[in-house]
Design a protein that fits this description.
Elements (H helix, E strand, L loop, with lengths): L8 H37 L46 H10 L16 H6 L5 E5 L8 E4 L2 E3 L4 E3 L2 E6 L3 E6 L2 E6 L5
Antiparallel strand pairs: 1-2, 2-3, 4-5, 5-6, 6-7
Length: 187
């Protein structure tokens, strides 16, 4: 009598898969039990240290209370009288052309970069606006564009000029068009 059973190829494959799954599950279980035993050993042999500390006396303070009412004695600044040389007033004819060339910039007159004509916006170079520092003192304001610092009146390149730096935005000039760009907004 022959008791051997012939397995089909599909059954042999499922037996291999069963062996692989058992082996990988055993490996995972061994790793988890090793980590748990290591954690348990450490928590048994290294209990947390609890100490109660009481301060019997008050520590001295490094500061003292100042009186609530302070009195300041002020003195007027000394007056220095200087002789001011009288200058001749400029001729009205000479002053008129200079005033015509240098108009004060009224920043409210300029629209944002979005209102520029579409063909002008496409010709504008790409700018990454990284920093915006405004100062009320002339010449102290600075912005950082494309990794470089620029002051008012400087040429940024590709025909773009920085006209003015204001608290919340800056004015730029490009191909005769002056426009406003919000602080720290790339284009």
């Amino acid at each position: 009598m022959n008791l051997s059973i012939e397995l089909k190829p599909q059954a042999r494959m499922s037996a291999r898969m069963c062996l692989i799954l058992t082996w990988s599950a055993g490996l995972t279980l061994a790793a988890l039990s090793g980590a748990a035993s290591c954690y348990g050993w450490h928590s048994l042999h290294n209990p947390p240290t609890v100490q109660r500390v009481e301060v019997v006396h008050h520590a001295p303070q490094n500061w003292r209370n100042i009186r609530q009412h302070l009195t300041f004695a002020t003195q007027p600044l000394p007056v220095i009288e200087e002789e001011i040389a009288e200058e001749e007033p400029p001729e009205p004819e000479a002053a008129a052309p200079e005033a015509a060339e240098e108009k004060p910039v009224n920043s409210d007159d300029f629209s944002g970069i979005e209102q520029l004509p579409e063909n002008t916006r496409h010709r504008l170079p790409a700018i990454k606006y990284s920093a915006h520092i405004y100062s009320s003192e002339p010449g102290k304001s600075v912005i950082n564009l494309n990794g470089r610092d620029y002051h008012e009146g400087e040429d940024i390149g590709s025909g773009v000029t920085l006209v003015t730096i204001e608290p919340n935005d800056s004015l730029f000039s490009f191909e005769g068009e002056t426009f406003r760009a919000a602080a720290l907004s790339d284009w």
